[in-house]
C-alpha cells in the first residue's frame, strides 16, 4: 500500500458536515463492535493454517518474530519444511486488503476533508512446491472519485496507481537457511522496517520516499531484481541484491544497482517483537544523465548514457522490552554532482531517519498505540527545506479467536518544513480490513 | 559484454544451487505416516472426529473389554506389580504424577508417561515416535527393563496359563494360544476408546458462545494468536504429532535425553520430543517430557521466555512471546477449564477390581 497522500485531491466540505461524519464513523464502529464475533474472514496464509492474524503479526500488518521467520523461510512454517500444504492442496490463496476512511487535511491557509478509499491491495501468496513459493500483490488504480466528479483534475489524480506491487518467486533453503533467493519485484531487504507493513498509513518513513533532484531511485519502493539472503543460528542475517533501481520499472541504463543488508540479533527472537536487533544497509547505483540517442527496447528498458553514481547507507536498531518496540533508523544519501541540478558544482548530500515506538496493549494486542518522528535534512540550498514530522496513532482490532482482521485506525501527523514555515496537519480515520 | 557474462554466470549459479539442492539428502525429519486424521500442515482447532481404526484391528465390545483387563492387569509385568495403568493412570489424566515415571522395582525412567487419552489420533507413538501404531506401542513397555521388566515370551506364558484369558482371547480372535499381536491388538482397541470429548471448547466451536467465559475466550484467542500455541498444538487433537526441541534439557543428575534423534539419527532431531495433546492438560501436571514444569502457569512462563536452555538445535518456532500477566492468566484459564472433557466414562475410569480379572 503505497503512501500517496501528497497526490491526493481534497474536496472541500462545509464545517457542519464534520459532526455528521464523525457521528457516522462512530456508528459504523459501534456496528462493527456489536457484530465483531461474526467476522470470519482471514487472509491467505492465516486461512491456510487456521491461525489467528496475531500468530504472524504483532498486530497486522506489522510482522512479529514468528511472521518474520515464516517470511524468511519462504512462507513455510520454520522447522516444518516439507510439511506444508501447497497452493494446489488448499483453497485459492487470495486475500484483499482495503482501507476506506475519512481525512481532515489542514495547512496554514486552508482546511479540507473527505471520505476516501485510501488503498486496496489484492494479494496472492503460497507454496508451489517444497522450498518454492511466491508472493503477488496487485494494487488497482483508485480514481478520484466517480464519473460525476467535479474536482479540478478529473481523471488525472488517481489516489493509487495500478501496479503489480510484488510478483516474486522465492527459492528457499538452497543451502539450509543460509541461502535463499527471491526473484521478481519485491520489497528489498535493505529496508530494515517495512513501509508496506507499517501501522502508519499517511506518513510512514519519509526518508524512504525522499526524492533527489535528478535521481529516480526511491528507497522505499519495491524493486525489480534478484536477492540472495540468509540467516544463521548465531543471529546473523544478510541480504545482497541486484536490481534495476528504477522502482519496479524497466531499467533506464545498463547498470544494475546493488545493495546489501547485514544485521545481528541478540537474545531470542528476531528483533521484531522479541530480542534486539542492529543492522546496517547500503545501496550503490548509477543513474543516467543523458538519454540523447538512446533507444527503448520492446520491453521498455532504455540505455541511458553518462551514468553517474549515487549511494545510500544507513544503520538501524530495533529494541524490544515487554510489549514495547522501539525502532530507529538513520540514513545518509549522496548523488554525484552531475545528478544535482540544483547546484551542479557539488554532490547532493542529505540525511534523515526516524524513531518509532509501538506499544501493544490489551489481550492479544487488540490495541496498538504508536509514536513516530521523521526527519529529512536536504542541503540548505534545496528549497524543499528540512522536514520534520510527528505522528501518533491508535489501532483497535476487531475479531475473534479465528481472526482479528478489522482495524479501526486513528492517526494524526504534523508535518513541518523550515522553508516558509510550511506546515500540514493530517488526521485520518480509517477502517483497515483484510480477508 | 562483461556485464552480460556476469549476468549469465549468476543465473547459472542459481540453477546449479537449485539443482544441487534437489539432489542433496533430505535435511528434514522423515515423512510422517499417512493416517486419516493427519494431513500436511496445520488444521483448525475443532471437535475431534471419529477415532481412526486400522482395518486389521476392528473395534468389538469383547475385544475392548479384553484390552481393558490387560491394561489394568499387573500380571503382564515381571514382578506382578506393574500394569499399563501404573504409569498411564486414569486418575492422573492417563499419565502419572511424575516428574518422570517410576517402573518396576521403583526404577525411575527418563521421561514421564505420555497420556494415553486421544493417543489413537497420534500419527506416531512414544515421546520419540518410535512406534507407528498403538499396537506397536503396546508391546514396548512390557519388555522395557525400567517399566514392566518382562519378556514377551514370559508374558505370553503367563497369559496362556490363565484359563480365563485363553477363553477370552479365543472368543475375540478365534484362535489360541495367545500371541503377542493379539495382546497388542486388544490393548490398542481399548486405548482407542479413551477419547476425551465434549469440552467447553468443543461446545464453543460448535456455536455455543456461552460455553467459554470471557477470560477463557480471550485465552483461546491468545492460544491461536499471540501465544503461538497452535503453531504446534493444532487440529482437533491440539497437536501436530511432530517433534520439537523446546530447550527442556535434562538437568543433572539425569542423563541427556536425545529424544527423536535416537530413532532417526538425524542431528536436527536431537532433544526433539513429540507434541502432546492439550486436551485435558490440567489433569496431568507436571509438564514436558521430563516433567520439568510443575504447573500450567510454569509452563506458560516457560514458553513466554522462549523455551528452556539455549540449544543449537532449538526449534525455530520457539521465540519469546511477550505475554503480559493478564494474557498468561487468560491462557491458563483456557487450558485449565476450556479443554477439559466432560465424558466421565473416560475421565473417571476406575481400575478393574482384582477379583474381576480372568483367572
From TrEMBL, chain B:
GO CC aspect terms: periplasmic space
Pfam families per UniProt: CCP_MauG
Keywords for this protein: Electron transport, Heme, Iron, Metal-binding, Oxidoreductase, Periplasm, Signal, Transport
Binding site for heme c 1: 84, 87-88
Iron is among the record's keywords: yes
Cofactor: heme
An annotated Gene Ontology molecular function: electron transfer activity
Pathway assignment: One-carbon metabolism; methylamine degradation
Function: Involved in methylamine metabolism. Essential for the maturation of the beta subunit of MADH, presumably via a step in the biosynthesis of tryptophan tryptophylquinone (TTQ), the cofactor of MADH.
Protein name: Methylamine utilization protein MauG
Organism of origin: Candidatus Fischerbacteria bacterium RBG_13_37_8
Lineage, broadest ranks: Bacteria, Candidatus Fischeribacteriota
Amino acid at each position: 500500500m503505497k503512501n500517496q497522500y501528497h497526490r491526493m485531491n481534497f474536496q472541500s466540505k462545509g464545517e457542519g458536515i464534520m459532526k455528521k461524519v464523525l457521528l457516522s464513523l462512530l456508528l459504523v464502529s459501534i456496528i462493527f463492535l456489536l457484530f465483531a464475533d461474526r467476522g470470519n474472514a482471514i487472509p491467505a496464509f492465516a486461512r491456510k493454517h487456521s491461525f489467528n492474524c496475531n500468530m504472524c503479526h504483532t498486530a497486522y500488518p506489522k510482522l512479529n518474530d514468528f511472521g518474520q521467520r515464516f517470511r524468511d523461510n519462504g512462507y513455510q512454517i520454520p522447522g516444518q519444511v516439507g510439511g506444508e500444504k501447497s497452493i494446489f492442496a488448499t483453497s485459492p490463496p487470495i486475500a484483499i486488503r482495503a482501507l476506506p476512511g475519512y481525512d481532515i487535511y489542514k495547512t496554514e491557509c486552508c482546511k479540507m476533508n473527505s471520505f476516501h478509499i485510501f488503498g486496496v491491495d489484492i494479494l496472492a501468496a503460497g507454496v508451489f512446491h517444497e522450498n518454492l513459493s511466491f508472493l503477488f500483490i496487485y494494487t488497482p488504480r483508485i480514481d478520484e472519485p466517480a464519473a460525476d466528479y467535479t474536482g479540478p483534475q478529473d481523471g488525472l489524480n488517481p489516489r493509487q496507481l495500478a501496479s503489480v506491487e510484488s510478483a516474486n518467486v522465492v527459492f528457499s533453503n538452497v543451502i539450509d537457511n543460509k541461502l535463499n533467493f527471491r526473484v521478481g519485484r519485491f520489497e528489498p531487504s535493505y529496508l530494515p522496517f517495512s513501509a508496506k507493513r507499517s501501522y502508519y498509513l499517511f506518513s510512514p518513513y519519509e526518508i524512504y520516499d525522499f526524492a533527489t533532484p535528478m535521481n529516480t531511485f526511491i528507497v522505499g519502493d519495491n524493486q525489480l531484481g534478484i536477492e540472495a539472503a540468509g540467516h544463521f543460528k548465531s543471529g546473523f542475517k544478510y541480504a545482497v541484491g541486484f536490481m534495476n533501481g528504477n522502482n519496479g520499472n524497466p531499467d533506464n541504463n545498463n547498470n544494475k544497482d546493488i545493495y546489501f543488508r547485514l544485521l545481528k540479533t541478540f537474545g531470542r527472537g528476531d528483533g521484531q517483537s522479541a530480542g534486539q536487533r542492529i543492522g546496517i544497509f547500503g545501496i550503490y547505483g548509477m543513474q543516467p544523465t543523458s538519454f540523447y540517442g538512446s533507444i527503448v527496447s520492446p520491453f521498455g528498458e532504455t540505455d541511458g548514457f553518462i551514468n553517474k553514481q549515487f549511494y545510500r547507507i544507513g544503520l538501524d536498531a530495533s529494541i524490544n522490552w515487554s510489549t514495547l518496540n522501539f525502532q530507529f533508523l538513520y540514513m545518509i544519501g549522496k548523488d554525484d554532482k552531475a545528478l544535482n541540478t540544483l547546484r551542479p558544482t557539488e554532490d547532493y548530500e542529505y540525511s534523515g531517519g526516524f524513531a518509532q515506538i509501538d506499544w501493544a496493549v490489551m489481550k492479544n494486542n487488540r490495541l496498538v498505540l504508536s509514536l513516530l518522528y521523521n526527519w529529512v535534512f536536504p542541503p540548505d540550498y534545496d528549497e524543499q527545506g528540512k522536514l520534520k514530522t510527528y505522528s501518533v496513532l491508535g489501532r483497535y482490532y476487531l475479531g475473534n479467536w479465528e481472526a482479528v482482521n478489522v482495524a479501526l485506525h486513528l492517526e494524526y501527523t504534523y508535518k513541518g518544513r523550515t522553508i516558509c514555515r510550511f506546515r500540514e496537519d493530517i488526521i485520518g480515520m480509517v477502517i483497515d480490513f483484510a480477508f | 559484454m562483461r556485464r552480460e557474462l556476469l549476468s549469465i554466470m549468476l543465473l547459472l549459479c542459481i540453477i546449479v544451487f537449485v539443482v544441487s539442492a534437489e539432489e542433496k539428502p533430505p535435511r528434514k525429519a522423515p515423512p510422517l505416516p499417512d493416517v486419516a486424521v493427519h494431513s500436511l500442515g496445520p488444521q483448525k482447532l475443532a471437535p475431534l472426529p471419529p477415532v481412526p481404526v486400522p482395518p486389521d484391528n476392528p473395534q468389538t465390545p469383547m475385544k475392548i473389554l479384553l484390552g481393558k483387563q490387560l491394561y489394568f492387569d499387573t500380571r503382564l509385568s515381571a514382578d506382578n506389580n506393574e500394569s499399563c495403568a501404573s504409569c498411564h493412570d486414569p486418575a492422573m489424566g492417563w499419565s502419572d504424577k511424575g516428574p518422570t515415571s517410576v517402573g518396576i522395582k521403583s526404577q525411575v525412567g527418563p521421561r514421564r508417561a505420555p497420556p494415553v487419552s486421544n493417543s489413537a489420533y497420534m500419527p506416531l507413538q512414544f515421546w520419540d515416535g518410535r512406534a507407528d501404531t498403538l499396537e506397536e506401542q503396546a508391546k514396548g513397555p512390557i519388555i522395557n527393563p525400567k517399566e514392566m521388566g518382562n519378556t514377551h515370551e514370559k508374558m505370553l506364558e503367563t497369559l496362556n496359563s490363565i484359563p480365563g484369558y485363553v477363553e477370552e482371547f479365543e472368543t475375540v480372535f478365534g484362535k489360541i494360544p495367545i500371541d503377542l499381536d493379539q495382546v497388542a491388538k486388544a490393548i490398542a482397541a481399548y486405548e482407542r476408546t479413551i477419547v476425551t470429548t465434549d469440552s467447553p471448547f468443543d461446545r464453543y466451536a460448535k456455536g455455543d458462545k456461552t460455553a467459554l467465559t470471557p477470560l477463557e475466550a480471550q485465552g483461546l484467542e491468545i492460544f491461536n494468536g499471540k501465544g503461538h500455541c497452535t503453531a504446534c498444538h493444532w487440529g482437533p487433537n491440539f497437536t501436530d504429532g511432530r517433534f520439537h526441541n523446546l530447550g527442556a534439557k535434562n538437568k543433572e543428575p539425569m542423563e541427556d535425553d536425545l529424544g527423536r534423534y535416537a530413532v532417526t539419527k538425524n542431528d536436527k532431531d536431537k532433544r526433539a520430543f513429540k507434541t502432546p495433546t492439550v486436551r485435558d492438560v490440567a489433569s496431568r501436571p507436571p509438564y514436558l517430557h521430563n516433567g520439568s514444569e510443575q504447573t500450567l502457569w510454569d509452563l506458560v512462563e516457560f514458553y513466554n521466555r522462549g523455551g528452556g536452555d539455549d540449544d543449537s538445535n532449538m526449534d525455530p518456532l520457539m521465540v519469546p512471546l511477550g505475554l503480559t500477566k493478564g494474557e498468561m492468566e487468560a491462557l491458563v484459564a483456557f487450558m485449565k477449564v476450556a479443554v477439559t472433557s466432560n465424558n466421565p466414562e473416560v475421565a473417571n475410569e476406575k481400575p478393574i477390581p482384582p477379583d474381576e480379572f480372568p483367572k
